Structure formats: C-alpha cells, structure tokens
C-alpha cells in the first residue's frame, strides 16, 4: 500500500509542477509582450518629440530669416550663426532618426533575447539557453547607444537654441 500511495503522491506533485510551470511560462510570455508594447510606445513618442523639436526649430529658423530679409528690415543678422543653429537642429534631427533605428534594433534584440529560453517542467520552469547571454550583451550595448543618440539629439537642440538666441541678441542690440 505504501508503494501505491507514494506513486499517487508523486503523480500529484508532478501534476502540480506541470500546472505551476504552465503558469510561469504564460506569465513570462505575458510580461514579455507587455514590456515590448510599452517600450515601443514610449520610445516612439520620445523619438517623435525629438524629431519634432529639432525639425520644427529648423523650420522656424528658416521662416524667421526669410521674414526678416524679405521685409527689408535693417536688422544685421549674423548668417554664420544662423547656419550654425540650423546645422545643430539638422544634427539633432539626424541623431533622433538614428535613435529611431537603434530603437528598432533594441526591440528586435529584446525579442530575440526573450525567445532564447527553454521551458522545463521543474522549478524554476524557465531556463536560459546559452545564446541568451550574448544577445543580452548586444541588447545592452544597442540600448545604451539609443539613449546616447537621444541625449545627443537633445544636446544638439540646446546648442541650436543657444546659437539662435545669440543671433537674436546681436540683432536686438545692433
């Protein structure tokens, strides 16, 4: 009788482990899906904002310069400083576009990394495959590069604003 009850108990433990494993597998898949969607949405909004502020600033600068020169105003504008400002805004737009490319690669690497697991029936129910460690490192490097590109875009915008403010100050005091 002891042998039969041990077998029944082992079977119950096995079935319980299977249910826990399936729950852990499903929870991991749901988290990966949620994280991917959230990261995509947030990074897309941030990148759009960087492109808009840099591109919008460049268009505003061009419009300002055209309006001032077409009205025959006697403002003495420093064309070199205007071009410098436009260059910073263009560099900021390019950096934001590069950030968008890197964001795509980050999401691809995240999905590739998340797929490098093996589902097992014993605790911890999910085991990393050997390739996952390498993908995690690549993912981290590309992710940091995307953040650096976003910061560079904002820095370019700030430098462009500085150049434009210097043009405006010189024009106002001339």
Q: Could you write a compact summary of the structure shown?
A:
By secondary structure, this protein is mainly alpha-helical. It has 3 helices and 2 strands; from the N terminus they run H-H-E-E-H. A two-stranded antiparallel sheet has the order 1-2.
What does this protein look like?
- The protein has 174 residues and is mainly alpha-helical.
- The protein has helices at 2-70, 79-114, 131-173; strands at residues 117-119, 126-128.
- Strands 1-2 form a two-stranded antiparallel sheet.
- Helix 1 (2-70) packs antiparallel against helix 2 (79-114) and helix 1 packs parallel to helix 3 (131-173).
- 19% of the residues are buried.
SSE diagram, text form:
Layout: H1 2-70, H2 79-114, E1 117-119, E2 126-128, H3 131-173
Antiparallel strand pairs: 1-2
Helix pairs in contact: 1-2, 1-3, 2-3
Percentage of residues in helical conformation: over 70%
Instruction: Give the assembly state of these chains.
Output: single chain
> What is the residue-mean pLDDT, rounded to a whole number?
86
Structural class: mainly alpha
Extract low-pLDDT stretches.
none
Helix/strand order: HHEEH
Give the total of beta strands.
Answer: 2
> Could you tell me the strand content as a percent range?
under 5%
How is the main sheet built? 2 strands, antiparallel
How far do the termini sit from each other? 104 Å
Q: Main sheet: which strands, in order across?
A: 1-2
Query: What does the radius of gyration come to?
Result: 28 Å
């Amino acid at each position: 009788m002891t042998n039969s009850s041990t077998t029944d108990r082992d079977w119950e433990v096995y079935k319980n482990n299977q249910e826990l494993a399936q729950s852990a597998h499903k929870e991991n898949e749901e988290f990966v899906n949620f994280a991917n969607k959230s990261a995509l949405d947030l990074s897309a909004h941030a990148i759009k904002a960087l492109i808009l502020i840099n591109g919008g600033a460049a268009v505003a600068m061009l419009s300002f310069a055209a309006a001032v020169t077409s009205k025959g105003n006697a403002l003495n504008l420093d064309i070199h400083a205007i071009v410098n400002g436009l260059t910073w805004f263009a560099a900021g737009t390019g950096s934001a576009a590069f950030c968008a490319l890197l964001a795509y690669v980050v999401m691809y690497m995240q999905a590739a990394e998340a797929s490098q697991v093996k589902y097992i029936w014993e605790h911890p129910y999910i085991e990393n495959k050997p390739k996952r460690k390498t993908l995690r490192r690549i993912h981290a490097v590309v992710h940091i590069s995307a953040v650096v590109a976003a910061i560079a875009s904002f820095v370019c915008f700030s430098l462009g604003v500085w150049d434009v403010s210097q043009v405006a100050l010189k024009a106002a005091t001339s």
